[in-house]
Amino acid sequence: MHHSTRGAAGPAAPARSPSLPRALAAAALWALLAPAVHASCGTAFCSVSSDWGALSGAPEEGGSFDLRYEYILQDQPRAGSHRVAVGELPRHHDEVRTENRNLIATYRHSFASGWGVKVSAPLVDREHQHIHNHRGTPIPEQWDFREAGDARVLGRYQQALPGSEASPRTGALVFGLKLPTGRTNIANEAGAVAERSLQPGTGTTDLVLGAAFHQQLAPEGGSWFAQAQVQHALHAHDNYKPGTQFMVDLGYARPVSDHWSLMLQLNMQSKGRDSGSEAEPEDSGGRFVHLSPGVSWKASDALRLYAFYQLPVYQYVNGVQLTSSDGFVLGVSARF
What we know:
- By secondary structure, the chain is mostly beta strands.
- It has one domain: Porin (Beta Barrel), CATH 2.40.160.
- Helix content is 6%, strand content 55%.
- It has an eleven-stranded antiparallel barrel with strand order 1-3-4-6-7-8-9-10-11-12-13.
């Protein structure tokens, strides 16, 4: 799951598969080496891809519905790539703990022409604690809310790529918007408005562009996918603009029985610094790499349950930010 900031995932693909590995390698290198950017006191969504195509093969014509639950506990302050204690590096407020429980509903529909649409909406359940250092006096503050987050509406164009019938390949392009449907003015019982990076919404409309590739692997019956995506806010809202996010996901799935499959994903994310007078640019932004093993159970040709455990491999943040040691995803995906 991605720690400290909201993540978005959506697929897309290249025109020629031979150039794809080089392009994705360059994208992954950029995500790891680009200037560090975006994170903060604890907004968090898992970066695991639960797209039906990523889990069970090339997308087919028709509709699908996915419902996933994410849990991420962020209780480890970090400076750069090093763990630090709460208050070890003094700040205007010392981050203590953020507990994230997200429920995300996604509807997808694919047409025979290769075009498709994807709509997703999150419900954010978040608890946050920090210590506000007001003129030398530490004051504990906390927020606890359950609110709708920012929805996404994405278009998709996908086509079969040249290849053998035994190992079909699919490429896709993705484009769309993250919409400002989540609130940006949540306050606690004392009337203190939460910092903007903690709010369920950013208040901005963001452009989302991406590409993806999927291939079935004969003879073992497994499959692999790769996708890259960028999300960029088109404007600021109330003196706040979230940093640009760039994501690369690589995944492999292999059936081990008629009903069970094992999966493994590598999720990489680079986040840009927030900007504006309501932002905290010195304590936002970073680079993250997670390894995500998972399992799925095929209840029928149209219904699949899945679970992922996400383990951080590399975390680097600007300033001081909360990070997590792990995360969990549980979900169900149905085609109709």
